Amino acid sequence: MPLRSLLAAILLALATSVAAQPYPAKPVRVIVPWPPAGVSDILARTLAQALTETSGQQFIVENKPGAGGTLGMAQVAKSPPDGYTLAASDIPSHAISASLYAKLPYDVLADFEPVAVIAGSPMVLVTQPSLNARSLAEFIRLVKAKPAMSYGSSGNGAITHLAIERMKQETGMDLQHVPFKGTVGAVASVMAGDTVLAFGTISGTVPHAKSGKLVLLGSSFAKRFSQIAEVPPVADTLPGFDMGFYTALFAPAGTPRDILQRIYAVTGKAFANPKLKEIYAAGAAEPGTMSSAELKAYMAAEVKSWGDVVRKVGLKID
Q1: Same domain for 162 and 135
Q2: Are residues 113 and 155 in the same domain?
């Protein structure tokens, strides 16, 4: 065989061998479009460690914050669709960005493949004890009788902002919005008496409720959450209300179906990791249960429902 033909045959054999290697055959980057130490970052790093142990390849988390999470997501959208660059971001922010930003460098639905829900934790709706409202229904009646009070959120366009705007639209409550830098500030404003309502995390609200500084009006998941089983869902009062701090893995559009299935499979196995279970439990989070197809349908529904809220509120970021 001529030397040139021999070299071509060797290169073809090597290429075929590499292509046939099971995924993952090299380290995987997981882009978190938020700063370190946030909810999505902690969940992603916990899962990445478990995935590394499960798959035998490194899953390396990289923080790429900026522009409400859109800078990091744009990087993933433009990455090769080979399964070696993924995003780990919260579902509500990703869905909200579709209508919140006037010029996104990607299409929220068309440019990504939703792979798996990493974890979810409900938000907790809180108010002041001095209002003497011990349920959401009582709070709604109180606010309607005394309009123009204020509520706090973690910032304009955040889920904690738009979730209460959705509640206002469904109930007719008149509440003025006061944005803070994070849920801690919003919850603190309720305790201080500056606002009367806010959504917070379980860890940031339950201890204060136990000490009598807050009243827990409801959790944001459709069903009762195991760690706060005594708190009724908001959906008991407002049917269909279901949202929370859901974080998911996304791959660039065009990623081969077999690779997506492999990522989903190793993610499911990683959920059995004892350390992951421990950290999730400490953070009041539960592993995701949606299939990739269910997650894709859920994302489409979230983009539509949050888009309706954003348009009614009149928010737009250029």
Answers
A1: yes
A2: no
State pTM to two decimals.
Answer: 0.84
Neighbours of 156 (CB within 10 A): 14
86 DSSP β-pair partners: 30
List the end-to-end C-alpha distance of the chain, in Å, as a whole number.
63
In a domain, 227, yes or no: yes
Task: Please list the pLDDT of the chain residue by residue as tens digits (318 residues).
Answer: 454 444 444 445 444 444 456 899 999 999 999 989 888 898 999 999 999 999 999 999 999 999 889 999 999 999 999 999 999 999 999 999 999 998 999 999 999 999 999 999 999 999 999 999 999 999 999 999 988 899 999 888 889 999 999 999 999 999 999 999 888 999 999 999 999 999 999 989 999 999 999 999 999 999 999 899 999 999 999 998 988 888 999 999 999 999 999 999 999 999 999 999 999 998 889 999 999 999 999 999 999 999 999 999 998 887
Residue 122 β-bridge partners: 244
Angle, alpha carbons 281-187-145 (nearest 5°)? 125
Tokens standing for residue 301: 């529904």
- Is residue 191 one of the residues assigned to a domain? yes
Let me know whether 106 and 39 are in one domain.
Answer: yes
In a domain? residue 58: yes
Residue found under tokens 């009070």 = 149
Do 43 and 181 have their domain in common?
A: no
Instruction: Name the one residue in this structure whose structure tokens are 């919140």.
Output: 100
- Is the Cα dihedral 36, 39, 41, 42 positive or negative? positive
Q: How many distinct structural domains can be found in the chain?
A: 2
Between CA 244 and CA 242 the distance in angstroms is 7
Q: CA-to-CA distance for 243 and 120, rounded, in angstroms?
A: 9
Residue 8 lies in a domain: no
Range of the domain at 221: 124-236
Asked if 241 and 221 count as a contact pair (C-beta separation under 8 A), the reply is no
Cβ atoms of residues 24 and 84 within 8 Å: yes
